[in-house]
Amino acid sequence: MESSPSPSLQCPRPLHSSRVIQMAHGGGGRLMSELLGRLLPLLPGSEKPSLRHDGAVVSVADWERLAFTTDSYVVNPLFFPGGDIGKLAVNGTVNDLAMCGAVPKVLSCALIIEEGFPVASLERVLRSMAAAAEVAGIEIITGDTKVVDRGKGDGLYINTAGLGVLPSGILIGPQKIQAGDAIIINGDLGRHAVAVMGARADMVFDPPVESDSVPLHRLVRSLLESGIPVHCLRDATRGGLASTLVELAESSELGIRLFDDKIAVGESVRSACEILGLDPLYLANEGRCVVFVPAKYAEGAVALMRELPEGREAVVIGRVTREHKRMLVVEGQYGTERCVPMLSGEQLPRIC
Amino acid sequence: MRYVEEFRDSARVKALANAIGRVVTRPWRIMEVCGGQTHSIVKYGLDQLLPEGLELIHGPGCPVCVTPTEKIDAAVWVSQQPNVIFCSFGDMLRVPGSSEDLLTTKARGADIRMVHSPLDAVAIARENPEREVVFFAVGFETTAPANAMAAYAARRQALTNFSMIIAHVLVPPAILAILQAEGNRVQGFLAAGHVCSIMGTSEYQLIAATHRVPIVVTGFEPVDIMQGILMCVRQLEVGTFALENQYARVVRPEGNGPARALVAEVFEIVGSDWRGLGELAVSGLALRDAYLSYDAELRFPRPCSVTSIPSACQAGAVLTGQIKPPQCSAFAKACTPEHPLGAPMVSTEGACAAYYHYRRRSIDGVVPVPEFAVS
């Protein structure tokens, strides 16, 4: 092994090649410019001048209606099985647009970096964002970088805002939900939450649990292009499927019934829930959405969703009813039923 | 999942429900002691499968629920002391003390960490020799061995910066208190399977014989609970008062020897204050003299303070089975999981929280309450 020269004989490293983020990297000066010079080429379309400008100019001439959303990502840890904060920041905002029925077009990306954050990790996150953007077929066209004092951030926070185009005649939302609608979900529950929780607590699952983070706009587009009258779409992220459906029951002023035996939960996620005392209905997902369609279209919608990898396990899990308005009721396997409220606070592991 | 799913099997549950229906000839009242059993009963709607007149009374076996406000106040106070890292199981964090809960204290800047094992707190103490690490050791006999192990491990590692707030209680004294209470309504018990897996069954044998009450040591899955109920009503119908063990796949009559030895090494039995039941003799655990240096309440002496419980909360009556949660005037009105007045609304094992989560539909009057619970 080569011996390294003693520190005193070493030429001091030039400041700008620092391997950790310093306050000056967000200061708007040379260091920041150099950092951006390193990071921006990692993004597709980085040759576009807008990424180095304060804003991007987007042509909207033939975009009849726009969908616009923003979301901030503060996940801890930043890297977990099946994804990282960068992948989430792209897919999450893409999915928010998709749930409006929109075709996502462009994203912004704002980074809030804690002083001392490794540049290599930052590059890894940016590469992951680039890969996710490519998979989703969208562009990141503008952004911002800020550095906060050590101890005043959690390594890295990301905000992404997104613009999407809404085809004419599409109106999707809780106000369209009707009694009799079938409720479809595109797969099993809880993988994102358990992957993150496991990474946080150094828990290893067998088989391993990976986040389900995936863009859902193709699934939505395929439904809309087929002419299926989709009444409502919602991704079941924080608060899980239960909180999502309670919210929709409340805003639609209707009742929702779920069939317990139709809801898929993977073996490892079920085990984690047993051990930690968690309910899979409340676990966060990053690639699961509920689709409300009139009952007669349910079979067609499920078949169509199953043609795409992100909809392979699509299944009808419930229906909308005029009974028990504003409430979610789960029909259990013994013919009994229970009422499921919105998640209150955080899910906390039980004592015993 | 083996050992779980077969005990949730629909056909078995329905067969047991039918068997119970055939055995029962008149009204009976059975208390399931453990909050974990209450949670299963309400979550799976098992009470909806029982014949009319067979009433389940929810017992005090939720450690979060019976921990007195005084201890929460002590925890809140200790967690605010300089240089303290306060570690707790998750569901203790939301239990209201007389001024605030630990989550609020955390938000105001205290270093409060949720751990999954008492040994995690010991590890934090080892990794932070310059900090004082305090663990909130709460629970029944089930968690006592793990909490004893924390003190034992800290002593072996010669850690001087680790201590515990002890809020440990024992099940048999609570059962006795319920049986001896004026107006007791309980005619049979489903004892808590996991407590017995540690302590064995002899204490319960004695209670069953002396108080002429059937006790069935019961597990936590739907099949376990339905079978436990069946065994209990069979005894009630024929008039026997024996201890039976439904949970034999886990519980041995002598319990878990090494776990009991560890508990006996670290803890001694003392009188203890219970939320809802009050002060009960020989009902709790405290550190033995050799371990007193790990007592956080001695290490951080607290100025005297008055602990008050919100007056609308009828946790005591709920915990002793005198009323069902919806019969409390504060239930789902002044008291909700977001703003709990009493601990039974906090833990998922608390009877109030279980009713709030799974029974609100009936409580809100949309459909009638399944009338298993007429008192």
**Strand-residue proportion of chain A:** 15-25%
Mean pLDDT of chain B: 90
Class from helix and strand fractions of chain B: alpha/beta
Radius of gyration of chain B: 21 Å
Could you describe the 3D structure shown?
The complex is a heterodimer of chains A (352) and B (375). Chain A has 352 residues and is of the alpha+beta class. Chain A contains eight helices and 13 strands. In chain A, a hairpin with a 2-residue loop joins strand 2 (79-80) and strand 3 (83-84). The model of chain A is unreliable at 1-9 and 12-16 (pLDDT under 50). Chain B has 375 residues and is α/β, with parallel strands linked by helices. Chain B folds into three domains: 5-59 and 178-192 and 203-245, Rossmann fold; 65-170 and 255-299, HypD, alpha/beta domain 2 (Rossmann fold), CATH 3.40.50.11740; 315-358, no CATH class. Chain B contains 15 helices and eleven strands. In chain B, the strands form two sheets. In chain B, strands 4-3-5-6-11-10 form a six-stranded mixed sheet, with helices on both faces. Chain B has a five-stranded parallel sheet with strand order 2-1-7-8-9. In chain B, strand 5 (132-139), helix 7 and strand 6 (162-169) form a beta-alpha-beta unit. The longest helix of chain B is centred in the middle third of the chain and has 17 residues, at 222-238. The radius of gyration of chain B is 21 Å and the shape is globular. At the A-B interface, helix 7 and strand 13 of A face helix 1, helix 2 and helix 15 of B.
Q: Tags for this entry?
A:
heterodimer; A: 352 residues; alpha+beta; 60s Ribosomal Protein L30, Chain: A; Phosphoribosyl-aminoimidazole Synthetase, Chain A, domain 2; 2 domains; seven-stranded mixed sheet; four-stranded mixed sheet; 22% strand; disordered N terminus; B: 375 residues; alpha/beta; Rossmann fold; 3 domains; six-stranded mixed sheet; five-stranded parallel sheet; 11 strands; disordered C terminus
